[in-house]
Every structure is written in C-alpha cells, then in structure tokens.
Amino acid sequence: MKAWILAAWAVLLMLSSPALAYEAKLGDDGLYHQDWFNNSFLDLKEDMLEATKAGKRFAVIWEQKGCPYCRDVHTVNFADDKLREWIKARYNILQLNLWGDREVTDFDGQVLTEKEMARKYRINFTPTIQFFPETATETQGKKAEAVEVARMPGYFRNFHFLSMFEYVWEKRYAKGQDFQRYILEKANQ
Questions:
Q1: Rounded CA separation 169/179 (Å)
Q2: Which CATH superfamily is domain 24-157 in?
C-alpha cells in the first residue's frame, strides 16, 4: 500500500512541475520551435505591421542547429510559464536560421536568404534577438542594424532575458537608458 501511495505522489509531482509539464519541440530543421512564434511569409515590414495591429512589438530570434544556448532558450527560458506568457502576450517573434536558405524581405524591400540577412545585420552567433521599433515608419531610411532599438547578444538567464523584453516594452532605450543601467535599477527595487 505504501509503495502505491509513493508512486502516485511521484506522478503527481512530475505532472505539477512546470519544467516537466512544458516540452520544447525540435523541428526537422534542427531548431527548437514555439507554436506561438510568428508563422509568416518572411516579410519583416508586414510582420511588424501585423504586430503593431495586435498591440505587440516585433522581434527576430536567430538560431542555428546544434546550438546548446538556443536549446536553453526553449527548454529553460520559455519553459518558465510566467516568462513565456508575458512575452507571448506582448511580442510577435519571428525565428530565423543563421545558416538558412529561406528568402526574407527586409524592411527596405531587399530580398535575401536568411544567411545573407544574418550577414547584413552582423549576426555572428546564436541565439541573438533583435528588437525593432513600434512602427514600420520608424524603419524608413535606416539600414541594417540602425533599424534595431535593442539587441540581446547571446544567451541570458531568465531574469536578464525577461528584463530585456521589459526594457524594450517600456521603451527605456528611447529615454536614453542603457540596458545595464535598467538592470541595476531593477535589481535594486
């Protein structure tokens, strides 16, 4: 009888654990995918317009097959229910492959493969998340990296990961505040 109770208790703990309840999906392309990521025609301007209409911000996450930190974004960061739901409610995220061959239309109308777009934006490692302005009009006349309002260069643990999304959501970059100062302010609260 005691063994049965212990087994039932173990199953209950496993099912109630957020880390075990959430499962990242590995695609045929070798990248982990979120079912809530933007599924688009890979036109950045259209994707931004769609995000703006939905009252959200637009971001691009760059990943590559075999990247252990990309895996951690999906299996650690996005496995946190509160973090994932906060971001999901406020951002449309497009996932691009650092070495991919799909054609992407940039804000300026230039059509490039994912790997050419990565070079244009100087994406050198993964994961990298690019954050863009609220509206497409703010991208006009700007080239490559000048279009971004912020960039998350590499893997951040949950506190810093969510903080970067909050930093952009609160438009702290527009107030001239560096992300590092934002983190210090937030940590001292």
A1: 12
A2: Glutaredoxin (3.40.30.10)
**Domain map (residue ranges) of the chain:** 24-157
At residue 5, the pLDDT reads 53
The DSSP line for 46-66 is: HHHHHHHHTT-EEEEEEE-TT
Over the chain (189 residues), what is each successive 10-residue block's mean pLDDT? Answer: 52 47 83 94 96 97 97 96 97 98 96 98 97 90 88 96 97 95 90
Task: Please give the structure tokens belonging to residue 7.
Answer: 């087994």
Main-chain dihedrals φ then ψ at residue 10, nearest 5 degrees: -65, -45
User: 179 is written with which tokens?
Assistant: 């992300």
Helix runs in 17-130, H state only: 18-21, 44-53, 68-72, 81-90, 114-120
Angle between helices 179-187 and 158-169 (to 10 degrees): 110
Q: What does the alpha-carbon distance between residue 54 and residue 51 come to, in Å, rounded to a whole number?
A: 5
Please provide residue 188's backbone torsions phi and psi, each rounded to the nearest 5 degrees: -90, 0
pLDDT of res. 17: 46
According to DSSP, residue 1 is labeled -
